[in-house]
Amino acid sequence: MAKHGKIRESRSRKIFLVCNTIILTILMLSCLLPFLYMVAVSFSNKTFVDSGQVSFLPKGFNLYAYQYLLRNLSFWRAFGVTVLVTVLGTLLNLTMMTLTAFPLSRPDGRLKGRTLYAWYFFCTMLVGGGMIPSYVLKTSLGLRNNLLVLFLPSALPIFSTILMINFFRQVPIEMEESARMDGAGPLRTLISIYIPLSKPSMASMALFSMVRHWNEWFTGMIYMSPKLQPLQTYLRTIIVQQDYSQLSAEESIMLGSISDATLRAAQIIIATLPILCIYPFLQKYFVKGGTLGSVKG
Fold first, then answer.
1. What digits encode the pLDDT tens for the residues 248-264?
2. What CATH number does the domain located at 71-292 have?
3. What is the pTM of this model?
4. I need a surface site. Which of 68, 130, 218, 251 has the fewest CB within 10 A?
5. What does the pLDDT read at residue 88?
């Protein structure tokens, strides 16, 4: 029975809430603690880092690693490449997804062969040509050492397009019919009705695209020269291969007072901050947009 207007929770419900809280707390800490450790290392003195005395708080606080990075032209050149590719790639993804999802969301009577087109796009998620044919094709098209190779081949992400199709299907058909009666064509209907109503879904798809482009490193390693590599490829070269052959004499002297781990941590923190800053602005759309596009209306 309820007392003072409160509903008594069952024992199984309480156990579920406790277990759920414990699991979510563990997941949160597994994501947060490594990041806090990297922040602490990036601000710590070389002696403490090399001796393994740094945990989650900086020791021997200093800004040497970040001062070095401000002078590292290679890092900022790679950073600029990634920002450019992320912006252009995201805009291209949203444009292609919208123009593809809108006609495919129409009933078969409105677009002949709609089901065939939908299956054609879906099959590309399951079957690929392979790395070697892809490399030969892109090279023959002149995309090697070309920034277009970083976002043009992935212009149409199929999974996000499918979510967008399902979202468009939930828009009341009466709104489209009303627009047609007023003389609006398909493009006008898309711009005036569907795009304004699809802000939550498009924000979610934009976040997916930005994260994918920002974290891409493999394509840059295969197709781009060192001066045109994106940030994640540059970081991989520094962190995994520890290749400092491109550093100047002045930069090499500065590295003598900085631990390798401190420098790597500082670069990772700077590479992570842009996405962390963008996410809060899109978070309010993220869950709503993903849910609306995940079921058929």
1. 566 666 666 677 788 88
2. 1.10.3720.10
3. 0.76
4. 130
5. 95
Q: What is the largest CA-CA distance in the chain?
A: 78
Least confident of 50-59, 95-104, 150-159: 50-59
Please identify which residue in the block is written with the tokens 């997804």. Answer: 97
d(CA 111, CA 101): 12
- The dihedral sign for the CA sequence 120, 171, 91, 212: negative
Residue 114, C-beta contacts closer than 8 angstroms, at least 6 positions apart? 103, 104, 106, 107, 108
Tokens at residue 171, please?
Answer: 């828009």
Domain boundaries, the chain: 11-50, 71-292
The phi and psi torsions of 3 (rounded to 5 degrees) equal -120, 130
Residues in the chain: 297
- Percent helix, strand, coil in the chain (nearest 5)? 70, 0, 30
Q: What is the DSSP string of 215-262?
A: H--HHHHHH--GGG--HHHHHHHHHTS---TT--HHHHHHHTTS-HHH
Q: Alpha helix locations (H) across 127-230?
A: 131-140, 158-169, 173-181, 186-189, 195-197, 199-215, 218-223
Take residue 2 and report the two structure tokens written for it.
């309820």
Q: How far is CA 248 from the centre of its chain?
A: 33
